[in-house]
Amino acid sequence: MAIEAGALDTELKTNEMAAAQAVRPRNWRLLGLYLLLGFSAGLPFYMFNAVLTLRLARHGVDIAVIGFFAWVALLPTFKFAWAPVLERFEVPGFGRFWGKRRGWIMLSQLGIFTSMLSMAMTSSDESLPLTALFAVLLAFWTTTLEIAADGWRIELAPTQAEQGPVVAANLWGYRSAMVAAGSGAVYVAAKAGWTWAYLVIAIAAFLPFPILAMMRPDPDAVGSRGAALGTGIVASLAILSATTIAAAVVGGIALELAGAAGVGADSDVTPVVLAICLLPFVLLAAALPRIRRMGPDAPARRSAAIGPYVDIFWRYGFAALPVLVFVSFYRMGDVLTLTLSHPLWNAAGYSLEEISMADGVVALTCSMAGVAIGGWMAGRWRMGWALAIGAVASAVGNWVFTWLWWAPRESWVLYVAAGIDQFGHGLAGAVFVVYLSLLVNPRYPGAQYAFLSGFAFLLPRLLAGASGAIQKVIGYDGFFIMSGAMSLAAVLFLPVIVRAVPRKSDMPPEEDAP
Question: Is the residue at 142 inside a domain?
Fold first, then answer.
């Protein structure tokens, strides 16, 4: 939760004591686990985002259509819609032997693997609807993995000081995997084509699955490892098939409706998409006065579907509104940079080999340094100061691309810009994850983190979808000046959000436990 300004000194002393415990040998296993889980989620993320936009650009797809593909990343915004399913149900076979959260992680890895195989087989992009379908499925399973991993992380490391090292380890894995996917995929594409690029990353993304399968079972495990693995794989294939059919049907209907409405590459559909995406959040905000008056027996607060989200507004009251505005601006720069940085590099004339180097050694080194410093700051500093430094670093990470656009086309210019970008956004990302984790009620770790982190990326990803159209009007330099300024604007909300303190729960103690 956000920390009241007057209580920060006491909190810092507590953090220092807890930080000392974070280096105990038993906690190194937790750091190693979240390094692995971060790697599992980071590999596929670039493949339906930055790498896909570069692939489409190399195939001559219009920049406005490429911008629409950025809306695939809107799917994680709605992860709150299926997060309660992960809290309540387990995957047959996997869940009974390895536990609920690990079972969902294993299912998600199978989904990631099959989705990337499908993207490899359709890498010519001759059918953009088919490309979009498999990109959506890849985004869905990547997000599902993150929901399960985030809920588990908050349960295992509930304090600010404990969160810092775990978040840093998770983001090290996540960002190093993103770099490996971006650099590795682009390099393989340069040498052997996009099909092999996606096949190589699909295999790499699947490697954590056998590691998780060989780990110790859940204390309440039922049956043998082999039987659990077999049952889980069969159940997973059925779930994956049903999900694919459902996505294809929904996508087909959406395309038919869009065609009937005359929506094309030059259509400005951003306001419509924004209205649809904001609707559930607006409804909750409108019901805030009523939510604040709800007692512990109110059906909305006890509902498995909406109870975790009603609880956020019940606990924070009207302070929830500036908090939501703040989080929607904080990661603006990171998302918008990820969307158009690679098309910018391509337009500036950089080769795939140069882009691979920028996305590889340069990005990995600078990103890990930024994450390490951000994780340390989030665990030791006052949260307001850590968030402010992160916002400034993120803004600079965007503005550096304006310099790159006008600088001579030299390899070192690309590497310097990529390094500053990755350092700034790595630092801001680590601080932000800890902040969001502390807002969460331990009763609903997975669902509430899904809600807050989903909303945090709603506005940035909506703008990312319109980024191609915006770039056509104001150019690459104007685009990155704008996105950096929007990141920095989050600082204006800090005096309010650091004073947002949740009221104590009125639930019985036995129901209030995690």
Answer: yes
The gap between the terminal CA atoms of the chain, to the nearest Å, is 15
Per-residue pLDDT at 480 exceeds 90: no
C-alpha span between 43 and 206 (Å, rounded): 10
Look at residues 94, 117, 118, 89 and name the one whose alpha carbon lies nearest to residue 105: 94
Q: Which of 413, 416, 420, 419 is nearest to 397 (CA)?
A: 420
Q: Is 368 exposed, middle or buried (0-12, 13-18, 19+ CB in 10 A)?
A: buried
267: its two tokens: 């259509």
Q: Say what the alpha-carbon torsion angle 205, 208, 213, 214 is, to the nearest 10 degrees.
A: 150
Q: What is the pLDDT of residues 35-68, one digit of tens each?
A: 888 887 888 887 887 788 888 888 888 777 777 7
Token digits for 222? 């039922």
Q: CA-CA distance, 415 to 345, in Å (whole number)?
A: 11
Side-chain-side CA neighbours of residue 87 (13 Å): 25
User: By CB neighbour count within 10 A (0-12 exposed, 13-18 middle, 19+ buried), where does 342 fall?
Assistant: buried
The one-letter amino acid at 498: V
| Average pLDDT, integer, range 134-147 | 91
Q: For 361, which DSSP code?
A: I
CA distance 30 to 405: 42
Q: 407 lies in a domain?
A: yes
| Residue the block writes with tokens 């019940």 | 314
Write the Ramachandran bin of 57: left for phi over 0, alpha for psi from -120 to 50, otherwise beta. alpha
> Residue 92 carries which DSSP code?
T
DSSP 466: T
* Nearest one of 208, 298, 498 to 381, comparing CA atoms: 498
Of the two residues 246 and 30, the one the predictor is more confident about is 246
Domain total of the chain:
1
Tell me, what DSSP letter sits at residue 217?
Answer: P
Residues in contact with 203: Cβ distance below 8 Å, sequence separation at least 6, in sequence order = none
Which domain range does residue 113 map to? 5-259+269-504
Query: For residue 431, what are the contacts with CB-CB under 8 A and spacing of at least 6?
Result: 374, 377, 378, 383, 386, 387, 389, 390
pLDDT, tens digit, 9 for 90 and up, residues 436-472: 888 888 777 778 888 888 788 777 777 776 777 777 8
- CATH number of the domain that 365 lies in? 1.20.1250.20
Domain annotation covers residue 434: yes
Give the predicted TM-score (pTM) of the model. 0.69
Please state the length of the chain.
514
In a domain, 514, yes or no: no
Query: CA angle, corner 508, sides to 503 and 514, nearest 5?
Result: 80
